[in-house]
Amino acid sequence: MIQIIYFLLLILVSLVGCKSPVKILVSIEASHCGGAPPMSSTPINLSPFQGKVIVVGAGDSIMVALDESGSATLKLAKGTYNWYRMSKSQDTETIKKTLLNLNRDLYKFIGDSCIKDWKGIADGTFTVETDSFDFELRLKKRCYTDLYPCLEYIGPYYN
Question: CATH no. for residue 99?
Answer without folding.
Answer: 2.60.40.10
